[in-house]
Design goal:
376 residues; 14 strands; single chain; 3 domains; 5-stranded antiparallel sheet; Beta-Lactamase; Enolase-like, domain 1; Arc Repressor Mutant, subunit A
């Protein structure tokens, strides 16, 4: 029986909007719409599986679904959902398990995340009460706290160098052709680099250049500083002043910050203990992804480019090592810029309502804390 014919015989429980396209694998149905009973059954299976991590059968479902549906009716609906790729049966005698497609349908149908409980809000807000801590310390405390609350792994990217705001710059002569540049951002992050110069300069002259740069550019972002320096270079009128000319040339080299954001991780071992990860090799593969960082860092960078919460479920992740888990990310910011992203990594069967709300609230508190303390 064709997929379309089977679908039409499904007693009205499933409906398709238009468009079926032929492919090498058969008939591909797009723009799928499930009616209320089918959605109810699917959502109930997903929520049961989230909390039990056990395959769900029709008899179990009939007792918890909250409406009067016979086990036979539920079996028919479950059979149709399985044929359409929302459920799989791991063993012949076992119940059904949601697929990545089912979780995506479930997440997209959520009207809004659940409310964060007051006691959880209080624990998250504790991050904002830490005094005298620089931004990277606050980020480390935040991912540790979020990992403890979610019992999953948590990640956060540090602010990009381009949006960091200058507190001060120091220029230290270390040889005739080399100068040590020390950049201190308002967040208290110290970055240093060695630049090479053709002319030899005295330390006294370098101190004068540093004082000029601090006076001109303090509290500006690195991106703004680079743009202003570039404008000075193309404007020949600025070159009549020897100090300014050297400051521009040295500043151009000093503020070329190509340092990528770093990623802080906490709670990786939570995944080893999570009952939803039945396959330990998949957890070890995920730990390898944490150690390599680049793929998760790419996801965090991408989530900075758009507003709101971003959810990557199972095989939606391009990287094979991440295809047995889900990532929920959102950005944090100050008044001027998006600074980085924070997220939770867990099994595809995580409690999406609860985790989405916690990630959103944590990012909100983190943004407020960084803004209030004038970090970056």
């Amino acid at each position: 029986m064709s997929a379309k014919k089977a679908f039409n015989n499904a007693q009205g429980d499933l409906h398709l909007k238009k468009r079926a396209e032929d492919s090498r694998k058969g008939v591909l149905f797009e723009n799928l719409v499930l009616n209320e009973r089918a959605q109810l059954v699917l959502n109930c299976i997903i929520e049961n599986y989230i909390h039990s991590s056990e395959p769900i059968g029709s008899r179990t479902l009939s007792k918890s679904i909250g409406v009067t549906l016979s086990p036979a009716t539920i079996r028919n609906i479950m059979s149709d959902l399985a044929e359409l790729g929302f459920l799989i049966q791991t063993h012949t005698s076992a119940g059904r398990v949601p697929t990545d497609k089912a979780y995506r349908f479930y997440v997209d149908s959520l009207s809004k995340p659940s409310t964060v409980p007051v006691q959880i809000k209080q624990k998250i807000t504790l991050v904002s009460t830490e005094q005298g801590m620089q931004v990277e310390g606050i980020l480390a405390e935040t991912v540790h706290m979020l990992a403890d609350l979610t019992k999953f792994a948590c990640v956060v990217s540090t602010p990009k160098a381009s949006v960091s705001r200058l507190q001060r710059i120091e220029l230290i002569k270390i040889s005739q052709d080399r100068i040590l540049v020390i950049l201190v951002t308002k967040a208290g992050v110290v970055r240093d680099k060695i630049i090479f110069v053709k002319e030899s300069h005295s330390q006294e002259f370098l101190n004068s250049v540093a004082s000029f740069l601090n006076e001109e550019f303090q509290n500006h972002s690195m991106q703004e500083i680079r743009e202003k320096i570039h404008q000075c270079i193309v404007d020949d009128r600025t070159r009549y002043h020897d100090l300014l000319a050297h400051a521009v040339r040295l500043g151009k080299k000093a503020f070329e910050t190509n340092n990528p954001s770093e990623m802080l991780i906490d709670g990786q071992m939570n995944l080893l203990l999570d009952e939803h990860f039945h396959n330990q090799s998949s957890v070890r593969s995920l730990i390898d992804a944490f150690n390599q960082k680049s793929e998760i860092m790419k996801i965090l960078d991408d989530s900075m480019k758009q507003k709101g919460v971003h959810i990557f479920i199972g095989n939606e992740n391009d990287h094979e090592q991440l295809q047995r888990c889900s990532l929920i990310t959102t950005s944090y910011r100050n008044n001027q810029n998006v600074l980085g992203s924070i997220g939770v990594v867990g099994p595809t069967s995580m409690d999406y309502k609860r985790i989405i709300s916690m990630v959103e609230y944590t990012a909100k508190i983190l943004s407020e804390t960084i803004t209030e303390r004038s970090y970056d």
